[in-house]
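Recall from the previous lesson that a structure prediction takes nothing but the amino acid sequence as input. Here we apply that procedure to WecB/TagA/CpsF family glycosyltransferase from Xanthocytophaga agilis. The sequence below is the only information supplied.
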Amino acid sequence: MTTSVTVSANRKRIISLDVSQLSYDETTREILDLGSSHTPSYVCYANVHMTIEGHWSPAFAEIVNNANIVAPDGVPLAKAFKSLYGVSQERVAGMDMLPSLIADCEKEGLSIYFFGTTNETLDAMRKRIEKDHPNLRIAGMFSPPFGSLNAANNEKYAQMINDSGANLVMVALGCPKQETWMSQNYKKINAVLLGVGGAFDVYAGVRKRAPFWMQKLALEWLYRLAQEPKRMFKRYFVTNSTYIWLLSKQIMAKK
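The prediction returns the following tokens.
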């Protein structure tokens, strides 16, 4: 099984990240092809938070940029393609891709392993999948205990996933932990890994997603802030303002 990374060819630099210029359908097809061939690989869904984390930490930017696909998860990143390069780019959000890939894998006979979050969330996800997609092959579901993501356990987790025969592995450990974990372990796993973060909680019904009109206006962060003001205040106001400043500098530099 090959372990070389073949990244999506056409990428555009947005502040710190080289984001893939692929449509939603093109991204989906690449993921399904990687999964069906059991190619060790990983996919990152980049948003403002991840972009600024990459700016502050070149090591983290390298982790993201080494992914096979760096999808523009957030509306601000998708719109940055037009501001910086004069090209239109579709948003490719992990929140949207989780349910659509479940449907695609059911149709194409591919199996999915769900790795991360809590046992309660995984149980709720299983119930919804069994109701809505009864023919999907669930390769496995596992919530790693807190503090267990060390070298010895990661070997066991990789073997556990490989033994399941999974084509896709949905990883929900939160940013930047999930991206780091995928980068460190993808070569051992014969599947495509997708860092989908909080998409598990939304799919399971544990947390509500922003209304569609807020998604279109790039206001999902405001909805999350209203849900968890203490935890999200610093993250959103610091990262959002930093993103606007750095993107403006990049736009001016290009002009």
